[in-house]
Write a structure and sequence with these properties.
- The complex is a heterodimer of chains A (666) and B (263).
- Chain A is an alpha+beta fold.
- Chain A is built from 16 helices and 27 strands.
- Among the domains of chain A are: 316 residues, FAD/NAD(P)-binding domain; 127 residues, Succinate dehydrogenase/fumarate reductase flavoprotein, catalytic domain (Flavocytochrome C3, Chain A, domain 1, Alpha-Beta Complex), CATH 3.90.700.
- Chain A is 33% helix and 19% strand.
- In chain A, helix 6 packs across helix 15, helix 13 runs antiparallel to helix 14 and helix 13 runs parallel beside helix 15.
- In chain B, strand 6 and strand 7 form a beta hairpin.
- In chain B, helix 7 packs across helix 10.
- Chain B has two domains: 123 residues, Beta-grasp domain (Ubiquitin-like (UB roll), Roll); 136 residues, Alpha-helical ferredoxin (Fumarate Reductase Iron-sulfur Protein, Chain B, domain 2).
- The chains are: A alpha+beta (666), B alpha+beta (263).
Chain lengths: 666, 263
């Protein structure tokens, strides 16, 4: 029985688990595993310090109530599920809201340079979907600061030696081994279907190698690059999520994609201007006159239309992102009132985001990070001129389906092997790549929180799975790993041999254009059919790709061919899910079905990969499934657990709509 | 100027990139300059120019070649990945706007950093920087992630000092520009020294200040700084690196003379 709970397998190998992805969720999972005494192999596409979490700007939510406004985790829970249009399972959201103050304190103890109050306490600012000051922040580069703090803790574990169950140190065996600049290819499954490791590729030497792991966590972030340009980093292709989906993992609520209202248009990327700009007092407006020729700062107050404040007097500029994005889109596309450009003699798809009325020292202390981005990329001074912004794809609420085990009081059973577990035994997921915490629309500053909270639950879940598993992955026959490695090596060689006429980067551009235009803020069944036809076409043309690079070293071209195939698979899950869901809910909005329809659609979209027919990936949507975990069978349905906050219609026009408890207190 | 050009009938305006390439670490014989002409577009930066080469990897002479490889992640100068020499100056290529660095359409020269082992084309291996962070113990010695209540109270003044230091992206600019950093020296460089200042500033980090200082007192440590002050010039985040080196230098001196007394 030593192999069950012990540090070593029966064959004498140190029993490690694997975490793929080194952003906030992955790093937190690693830290939790190390604290539980479980050694980890950490794989990342990039040095973990460069993970996409670094881009998060505004802050992290926690109902600490520093300002004495009467905020509480209960209100945080209510506002989060209301903001998510009641599609999120509520127990995990409750767990997250309850844990939030402790998480922020932990980060504070790790040395995150959060902004402070005059008493030396953590300062909090406002964010969307709430009236409370609930968001802790470190300037306007909070994600960077959080990522660095977690990165430092994981680096510390790289220097710590593994101890066996008797407390004896194993020489040369470190708690964390990093495999940075490795691309995840697939999981390894044993004869019973359990996930017992991964196959990955070294992006420098291009070596393909299988690694055993008692459990595997996918923490690889979102799929923003499926939309071509977005606020996401170029590495966010969703390739790992797509790969495990193709291997049988369920993908949930894929159609829920968040479009952030305020980004800077750009040719290579749409750069985010954080919601914290509005949280600190920034105002969104357009000139009342569609042909207004004066520069933004010269337009007097009476000629400005502060359209969010006018329509939503309660929440004003801080309505949730799905609503703000739709209002901006309306102004620019339907009403033609985007900022007029005298040079092109057209109304651009841009509105003003104005901070010029704010004291400069406040801006410098609290928002310098984002204002610097605006200044560097646009070449205009945002302290003096209103910024010009437009919505951009930002976040995926959907992702790999994961389970949870709820307590009677609605929170989660900590350490349950079901928490963050996918439907493949031994495979876990945490962070943006999971679907769990945001329902149909995520509130600002809840993503850093959900990533860390998911990691806090995922680590203990994997540790208890590992100590209960009947046999270690390190005792699985080596032929299982050899076979998986051989399969992936052949797949890679097949890519290198592609010599057709299509350029994979050009195909990606076409995919992104269609997805961005027809599968974001406003959706129509007719255009979604066209999107799906386009995906068919691109999958067909993909067969005729020519790899532009055959180098045996740092071959990015061949790697991209693989990512493109996976992006097409995810694009179909997203578009087909959107086509099927005939209602409007949160970030999913159909003009022809303007109302939320709880009787038909208060349910999770569960997508299963159904093989490939004539080169095209097939999606099967299911209403439920069973999955195996440690000898038991867990039955899953698409019903949403709404036991804590009763669903009601969203109405942000009135202050306090998101939480009755908040009304009248601010 | 840029917007006029956008409207001009001469839509075929192109930008020339001259790129220093090499196929792999052990292949100095493959080192070469290659030129590419790519169509200009508004708000173009070096990365979007390189992306166009990916879509059409053909040199100015019309030769089909392997696309140029480079590292990039965030494209908003917060991850540090895309550092390279742009017209001889070390910087992030995402913020290298074509209209600014080539106002008259001058060719843009791109080369990999020289102080790190080359991987391929514009990619170098900066893993030594992450290893150095281990050497100086650039972390807080946390008791655990469990809920132990709030951290130590700190003034906003402390945050004002710490936050700029904490924005280091490990991008490598300061090491590339430092004359003391070379293949023949073991100088740890400004980035890691700045981290020592950051953690020694923190109320809990202070408790282990001595260990960090000792890591900087041997060969390749802080005494190897030649005070050229190039680091502070090239730091994209304007981190006061020279101040950090001076401050940590004072701390090591104090530790050297009085450290044993304070133990």
């Amino acid at each position: 029985m030593a192999q069950k709970t012990g540090t070593k397998s029966t064959t004498g190998k140190v029993r490690r688990v694997i975490v793929v992805g080194g952003g906030l969720a992955g790093l937190t999972t690693v830290i939790e595993l190390c604290e539980a005494g479980v050694p980890v192999d950490l794989f990342s596409l990039v040095p973990v310090k460069r993970s996409h979490s670094v881009c998060a700007q505004g802050g992290i939510n926690a109902s600490v109530n520093t300002k004495g406004e009467g905020d509480s985790p209960r209100i945080h829970l209510e506002e989060t599920v209301y903001g998510g249009d009641f599609l999120a399972n509520q127990p995990p959201v409750k767990g997250m809201a309850d844990a939030a103050p402790g998480i922020v304190y932990m980060l504070d103890r790790m040395g995150v340079p959060f902004n402070r109050t005059s008493e030396g306490l953590l300062d909090f600012r406002r964010f969307g979907g709430t009236l409370f000051h609930r968001t802790a922040f470190a300037g306007a580069t909070t994600g960077q600061q959080l990522l660095y703090a977690l990165d430092e803790q994981v680096r510390r574990y790289e220097t710590v030696e593994v101890e066996d169950e008797k407390g004896i140190r194993l020489r040369g065996e470190r708690m964390v081994r990093k495999f940075e600049l490795w691309d995840f290819l697939s999981i390894v499954r044993d004869g019973t279907g359990r996930c017992v490791g991964v196959v990955a590729q070294d992006l420098k030497s291009m070596e393909v190698r299988a690694f055993p792991g008692d459990a595997v966590c996918i923490a690889t972030g979102g799929p923003g690059i499926v939309f071509g340009r977005s606020t996401n980093s170029v590495i966010n292709t969703g390739t790992a999520a797509a790969a495990v989906y193709r291997q049988g993992a369920c993908y949930a609520n894929g159609e829920f994609i968040q479009v952030h209202p305020t980004a800077i248009p750009g040719a290579d990327k749409l750069r985010l201007i954080s919601e914290s700009a509005r949280g600190e007092g920034g105002r969104v407006w357009v000139p009342k006159d569609a042909k207004e020729k004066r520069r933004g700062r010269d337009v007097p107050e009476r000629d400005r239309d502060y359209f969010l404040e006018a329509k939503y007097p309660g929440y004003g500029n801080l309505v949730p992102r799905d609503i703000a994005s739709r209002e901006l889109f309306n102004k620019c596309f339907h009403e033609g009132l985007g900022v007029y450009n005298p040079k092109t003699r057209a109304n651009e798809h841009e509105v003003y985001l104005d901070l010029t009325h704010m004291p400069k020292e406040v801006l410098r202390s609290k928002l310098a990070g984002i204002l610097e981005i605006y200044e560097k990329f646009v070449g205009e001074d945002p302290y003096e001129n209103p910024m010009k912004v437009f919505p951009a794809v930002h976040y995926s609420m959907g992702g790999l389906w994961v389970d949870f085990e709820r307590r009677a009081d609605g929170g989660l059973v900590r350490g349950s092997p079901r928490n963050q577990a996918t439907n493949i035994e031994g495979l876990y997921a945490a962070g943006e790549v999971d679907y769990q915490y945001h329902g149909a629309n995520r509130l600002g500053a809840n993503s850093l929180l959900s990533c860390i909270y998911a990691g806090l639950e995922c680590g203990p879940a994997m540790a208890s799975y590992r100590s209960s598993m009947p046999s270690s992955a390190f005792d699985v026959a080596s032929s299982v790993f050899d076979k998986a490695e051989e399969r992936e090596r052949k797949a890679y060689e097949a890519i290198l041999a592609l010599n057709g006429d299509e350029n994979p980067y050009a195909l990606h551009k076409e995919l992104g254009e269609v997805m961005l235009r027809d599968c974001t803020i406003e959706r129509h069944n007719g255009t979604l059919d066209a999107v799906l036809a386009k995906i068919d076409e691109l999958e067909d043309r993909q067969a005729d790709v020519g790899v532009t690079d055959t180098s045996a070293h740092a071959n990015q071209g061949a790697q991209f061919v693989r990512h493109l195939a996976n992006m097409l698979v995810l694009a179909r899950v997203i578009a087909q899910g959107a086509r099927a869901r005939d209602e409007s809910r949160g970030g999913h909005y159909k003009l022809d079905f303007e109302k939320r329809d709880d009787s038909a659609w208060l349910r999770t979209t569960l997508a299963m990969h159904d093989g490939v027919a004539e080169g095209r990936s097939q999606v099967r949507y299911v209403r439920g499934f069973d999955y195996a975990l440690l000898g038991a069978t867990v039955a899953v349905t698409d019903a949403v657990d709404v036991s804590l906050v009763k669903p009601r219609v969203r109405k942000y026009e009135a202050a306090g709509a998101a939480s009755a408890a908040a009304t009248g207190k601010i | 100027m840029s917007e006029d050009a956008a409207k001009s009938p001469r839509t075929e305006r192109t930008i020339r990139l001259e790129i220093l390439r090499q196929d792999g670490p052990g292949q100095p014989e493959s080192k070469r300059w290659e030129s590419f002409d790519v169509p200009w577009h508004p708000q173009m930066n070096v990365i979007s120019a390189l992306m166009q080469i990916q879509r059409n990897p053909v040199t100015a002479e019309g030769k089909k070649v392997a696309p140029v490889v480079w590292e990039s992640v965030c494209l908003e100068e917060v991850c540090g990945a895309c550092t390279m020499l742009v017209n001889g100056r070390v910087r992030q290529s995402c913020t290298a706007l074509v209209d600014q660095i080539s106002p008259e359409g001058e060719p843009i020269k791109l080369a990999p950093m020289t102080k790190f082992p080359l991987v391929r084309d514009l990619i170098v291996d900066r893993s030594r920087m992450f290893d150095d962070l281990k050497k100086v113990k650039a972390w807080i010695d946390l008791d655990g992630s469990h809920d132990l209540g709030p951290g130590p109270r700190q003034s906003q003044g402390n945050q004002d000092e710490a936050y700029p230091l904490s924005r280091c992206m490990t991008c490598g600019c300061c090491l590339e520009a430092c004359p003391q950093v070379s293949a023949s020296s073991s100088f740890i460089g400004p980035a890691a020294i700045n981290q020592v200042r950051l953690f020694n500033l923190h109320p809990s980090g202070k408790m282990h200040a001595g260990e960090r200082l000792e890591a900087l007192m041997g060969e390749g440590g802080i005494a190897d700084c030649g005070k050229a002050q190039n680091c502070v010039d090239v730091c994209p985040k304007e981190i006061p690196l020279v101040d950090s080196i001076a401050e940590v230098s004072r701390q090591t001196t104090r530790h050297l003379f009085f450290g044993w007394l304070l133990r």
